[in-house]
## 1
Amino acid sequence: MALVMEKHKMPEQDPKVRARNFQEVALGYDEDTAVAEAERCLNCKVPKCRQGCPVQVNIPAFIGKIKERDFDAAIDIIKESNSLPAVCGRVCPQENQCEKHCIMGIKGEPVGIGRLERFVADYQLAKNEEIKPIQFAEDAQKVAVIGAGPSGLSCAGDLAKMGYKVTIFEALHVAGGVLSYGIPEFRLPKDKIVRREVENLQKLGVTIEVNAIAGRLFTVDELMGEMGFDAVYVGTGAGLPHFMHIPGENLNGVYSSNEFLTRCNLMKAYDFPNHLTPIAIGKNVAVVGGGNVAMDAARTSLRLGAENVYIVYRRSEAELPARAEEVHHAKEEGIQFKLLNNPVEILGDENGWVKGLKCIKMELGEPDASGRRRPVAIEGSEFELDVDTVIMAIGNGPNPIVASTTPGMETNKRGNIIADEETCATTKEGVFAGGDIVTGAATVILAMGAGKKAAAAIDAYLKSKK
Amino acid sequence: MFKILKKQELSPGIFHYDIEAPRVAKKAQAGQFIVLRVDEDGERIPLTIADFDREAGTITLIFQVVGASTKMLAAKNEGDSIVDFAGPLGQPSEIHENMGTIVCIGGGIGVAPVYPIARAMHEAGNKVISIMGAKTKDILIFEDKMRAISDEVLIATDDGSYGVKGFVTTALQQLVDRGEKIDQVTAIGPGVMMRSVVEATRPLGIKTIVSLNPVMVDGTGMCGGCRVQVGDEMKFACVDGPEFDGHLVDFDSLMSRSRMFRPQEAQAKDHVCNIGLGR
Ligand SMILES: Cc1cc2nc3c(=O)[nH]c(=O)nc-3n(C[C@H](O)[C@H](O)[C@H](O)COP(=O)(O)OP(=O)(O)OC[C@H]3O[C@@H](n4cnc5c(N)ncnc54)[C@H](O)[C@@H]3O)c2cc1C
Ligand SMILES: Cc1cc2nc3c(=O)[nH]c(=O)nc-3n(C[C@H](O)[C@H](O)[C@H](O)COP(=O)(O)OP(=O)(O)OC[C@H]3O[C@@H](n4cnc5c(N)ncnc54)[C@H](O)[C@@H]3O)c2cc1C
Ligand code: SF4
Ligand code: FES
């Protein structure tokens, strides 16, 4: 049979239509397309794809099951190493991971591994199978998980399946972490996917307490003392927004990407005033940054009704850290890329509102520590961009609330918790940590993987203590 | 769900609620606040912990009806519940023994959040002089409570219906004029009031603490919406504050930023009125 060199196309909403609504952009394969895409896989003896996957999902095996139309078996194989396939199938940067290494990618396009993962995950969610609650032993040991992001959720799920009684403490009023407050509805549906994953965990027997801010309502020492937990996993993410510290950042119309996306996603400001949280969006929006977060903020701005949306990024297209697919989607929808530009000042009007963004043009110089060519300002090249809203999407750091109230748990210079790469053990006995709070802002799959590793290590630790 | 155990209208549009939240009550300290949502479609709004009872497991909130969310909250009755209640948030007030003479100033609804601070100052053995300000006598709140924990209480009303006629700064000036040695002023109230207190104490070199109330979303340091300029630093009021050295605060930007969502707030209020409050 001749090889099909191209991926089967992902059905998508038309760019013009979707740029004005919040429904999911990518619609997913149907059964026949999924099977046809699976047929492209060569079932390599030494599957390179698997080495590219941060959690080493057995990719050829699950694709093989799709070929046989045994979708249940396919999803079971994925779930051995990935607890959130419906999420990862949608948001993983596959082009830098599994698909980057796929043999098919040398002469043509790699196998659509992410799309196939999403297909079987959605297939299983749609079946709405009953989830049997775990019967915990009377004297089962208790583990507390702080933070209900992908890392905390996967750690909790694995521990519950091992028979531990797990309580997740979440600061916000909704579980999911960035999956709920950051990544927009049009990339990752909340009710259909995120809430379902969370509910399934609850049905399994995991307790989730929202409105519970560790470090304020209780400390880690209290969790392990009077509250009776035998171990703690900290998965509090990287949720502290950075600003550029340029003049004008306190003007009205300036948001951090976190505030902007939280208002829209978590608080559903796109459905204002039915949902009561307001959002103010102008006609012309500049989003500063070039990562996934910037793309999400830009595409959200468009959907809220902005006419012109610019991405202002100080390096060139090749260095954009966002997923290729998201950059492509953004362009299709009409986002305008102002590359090799760096903001130097936000200009305000007499009422304290943004009226422009002053930028300076950049050129690429010698490679820096990250190996990327360093952007250098071109003297005298300042110009003004006519905008009334500015969204800062230049990265997030670790929130210090838990670390600063947990004596004995050390952090590095940047404030990230220090944890063992293999076991996620921190410098405090019985306390483990993983995900963005340890690595700095990274990816869903790495956070999820750390949660799973930690679950195994916590199990070993608790068994050794018995 | 968090139950409203007690509801009382202190003066028109100003309510006292006791909310059942034992774990928050156990940890609450003067100067801190909570964030609540009234219902599933509600917004997250911050309110100061005006009092707490660790034994009864309750938190007292005093709030003024100003817009959609406070209107919906006011429409609740004793025995009803609200969906979310998170705290205690923010840094507690810095309170210790031997601080000397503290002037605690509360303007309008600001009397409520200043009360637990004044009480703790008093319990730590400091001399507490309280200044309470209101537009007119009828809307003055917490007078008895303030008298019980203050060495002296001064009252200022805009119309002169009670106490001195004028602003809280008029009363403060009286203290200064009579030669009272003031070690610290703590002022809570509307932005304009706090700014005038700060301007009054600046030339006198009196340490002045203010509690800021920028627009907040999460209250945990995640959104940066509550950022304020303090000296040459950008601070997040919800985690670094809400109390700051008043002489360093950029009040213009603070007050301007609190108007960012005015048009939407008006729209939300209309919406809540139209759909009725019992939703
Ligand atoms: C807008 C945006 C888009 C992104 N897009 C992608 C993408 O396309 N693909 C991808 O792979 N990755 C993406 N990422 C990155 C990815 O979402 C994160 O790496 C991942 O969510 C980290 O997971 P986590 O569990 O470590 O932390 P988080 O998801 O941040 O969750 C941490 C949770 O802990 C809670 N918490 C914090 N402090 C406390 C406390 N003191 N007490 C209790 N709870 C607390 C927080 O409220 C939060 O719910 C994106 C991130 C953002 C912001
Ligand atoms: C730390 C802190 C403590 C506070 N303590 C009290 C208190 O004890 N009693 C009290 O009556 N009020 C208090 N406030 C103010 C209170 O949060 C607002 O009055 C309330 O959010 C208004 O909501 P609304 O929908 O009814 O009115 P809106 O019509 O939405 O707003 C009216 C005004 O309130 C302010 N506001 C609106 N939304 C928010 C928000 N999410 N966060 C902060 N301010 C907002 C804005 O300045 C706005 O212009 C406090 C604010 C902060 C930041
Ligand atoms: S590398 Fe590509 S072709 Fe080979 S097993 Fe993996 S997905 Fe299939
Ligand atoms: S309210 Fe979001 S950071 Fe302070």
## 2
Amino acid sequence: MEDTGRTHDERRAGRWTSVLIMFTLVAGVLSFVWSARSYWLLPLASAQGASIDELFDIILVLTAIAFVAVHLFIGIALWRFPARQGAKAAHWHEHLGAELTWTVVPAIGIIILGIAGEVVWAKVYSAPPANAEQVDVVGRQFEWQFRYPGPDGRFGRSAPRFVTSGNPFGMDPSDPENKQNVVTINDLHLVVNRPVLLHITSIDVIHSLSLPNFRMKQDAVPGRVVDIWFTPNKEGAYQIVCAQLCGVGHYTMRGNITVQSQSAFDQWLQSQIK
Amino acid sequence: MDAVAVRQPEMAHEPHPRESFIRHYIFSIDHKMIGKQYFLTTMFMALVGGAMAMLMRAHLGWPDNGVLSPEQYLQAVTMHGTIMIFFFLTVMLTGGLGNLLIPLMIGARDMAFPFLNMISYWTFVPGVITILLSYFVPGGPAGNGWTAYAPLSAVPAAEGGAGLGQTLWIIAILFVVISSLFGSLNFLTTVINLRTRGMSMGRLPLTIWGAFVTAVLALLSFPVLMAALGLLLLDRLAGTSFFEASNLIIGGAASTHQGGDALLWQHLFWFFGHPEVYILILTPMGVVSDIISTFSRKPIFGYKAMVLSLAAIGFLSFLVWGHHMFVSGMHPLLGAAFMGSTIIIAIPSAIKTFNWCTTLWHGRIHFTTAMLFAIGFVSVFVTGGLSGIFLAIAPVDLYLHDTYFIVAHFHFVMASASLFAILAGTYYWFPKFFGRMMNETLGKIHFALTFLGIYGTFYPMHFIGLHSNDRRLYETTAYPFLSHTGPVDVFVSLSAFLLGFAQLFFIANFLWSLKYGPVAGDNPWHANGLEWTTTTPPPHGNWEGALPAVYRWPYDYSVPGARDDYVPQTVQAIPLVAAAGAGGGEA
Ligand code: HEM
Ligand SMILES: [Cu+2]
Ligand SMILES: [Cu+2]
């Protein structure tokens, strides 16, 4: 064994390893191409989502280049530089120019990405438009409840002290306005091309209101109300996923979304008022 | 193991009576024995964690077979993550590799505090017992994820089961935390104070740099986890309300908790959690640097940049925890700030990758199993690091958070990378510690199957993640858009089984080689590190006679004009080609 590192001809091993790395490269890229047809981002249905998808595409291209470049480099190195009789390794181990290049180039790339990310982030979390439809959302084990203002666009009074199992929104029973409010379970209706402002909370553990088609996700946190808004821009039926482990029934905690025209929405809302 | 250990010569530096069995194997204060204890204990835990993974995949591939109930599935997920992170990787890298390697690679007789070292191992053991015990209590083990988000983990009425499992989970991890704190104090002191003559910080092998920065991270981040666990325990047992807001309705009844904050847990947990993931990768980065250099017969490229980037990653890792919380409800401005810091941390990671690649170039590569795993490390680390960029860009993370894309990310960049480095390190240092070589043929089969198994298991998770398949779902039947992901899950499960099967080659090789492997010389790889200058296996006290003096860094491979293609750190004047025949090997 004392001879390891001396006389072995490692060319065969080098080729095999190189082939393994190249296989990883090819399979890694091809499987992504295949996936783009079968399993990709869910169909986009919000105005804000477009710039998120653009960012995604840019990152995908950049990371794909990096993935290919690094694996190609390793693959070639393994092929070209196996130990064999007579060959000697080089001894260099420092090169300021090279090191600066591969520090600065990725740094620039990633900082530009970061700036683009910050811009989109700021847009997603900008102040909601005044005409937004408003919906209160409560997550609980293991369902979503939604509360819509009545036809006059107003919520009745509510307060935490009224919260019970049967009244998760804590609606004040003495306020007649609350009779006009609509509460649904796992059923969120949105108006197409109208911004919607969701006030999200939870009454037990943390849930997460995930709206993949709208590129939004917000944890429902007990004890705080978090607002998010977006503009659905495609009519249709979508799903809400609970994205935060919330207990044994977590996997059943699905909600439905219907994006519809204003008139269809109004009709639906009217039909819900008891 | 016995056969080898018994052969150990008596302690060299002072008269030393023969130790009793108990002093030698159980309550040993020799870092090598403690390291072996850690190594074997954590390897055993890896098998337990791996078994959980096999169960999960058996269920997810064929959800209709009812292998697991929803509750059992969550328990398997939780115990898999918990055991792999806390009871395998963390402790294997620090207690195992750290203990075995630090004194030998810096030229010390032992750790600075050998007794504390023993205490540290024996604080870890109750943790192991507690977590294993939790399988057998009513209701079973914890099932709230390795991240144990409160209030789910804090209010027994919110979880399934009887809740004792979650309490034991907290206690078990507290043991690990305390044990790790002892360990990191010891490692820091040892590296700072016990380096041998000539072993300046600038000549430390990168493995030791990795272990050193790791110890700093552990020392600064584990106390925060300890505090968080303490508060969680109080919430569960004493009715305090650190993590529960007022007016909650849990299990149909009004909760008595008041005035706490669920996000407090996440801030504390991730303030620890992000440094923790680097605790699991910095030592591996060092190990891989050393192995790639040795088997390329070429100095590591950019040593200074490697050290600086380790330090930079260590520092930055305390500033990025909020990237786990982009959608948690913390203020979007904080999200913006954490996006900025997270972006920056990708840069030192990129530097390291390029340096590994460049080290290969114009090398004279020896494809030992250790080297194969080191090369595999670079591949999986790159694949996982690149998916990290998607996640760092917060608006994109809005979509990807808590999907299988995350699972893919951290299994490549952390789990696989760390595992590969541990395996590489085992193949590399096994001869030194057990006196025999491991079988290279079995090793190569192990590598090829493991590499393919890893990619087959985790790469397709990107795809279902992009398709918004959330993690930690017992089954996906509730979601129509996931109705056609079944084939991917089957493929992933089959790959996972292959991965599990491949490890049998390792176990067989390990056990077989302990007894029947060819006897290893002192320096079978012709490597430069100090650990190769002592006898194999090293005696108690590590070197017979005086401690070695160090004259150079550990990367003098293929020095032009030198007789050999390696120059151990203890060599003062390099034997030149002309002088061949003058001396007999290393000094
Ligand atoms: C290129 C640098 C990296 C970047 C930019 C990055 C970014 C991120 C981000 C933003 C997340 C949160 C995703 C989410 O939950 O929505 C994440 C998750 C994670 N990362 Fe990384 N990461 C990087 C490297 C690493 C490394 C080196 C490790 C470990 C060695 C690691 C381990 C993890 C783990 C364990 C999680 C998930 C924890 C959990 O939710 O269970 N990452 N990463
Ligand atoms: Cu939920
Ligand atoms: Cu992190």
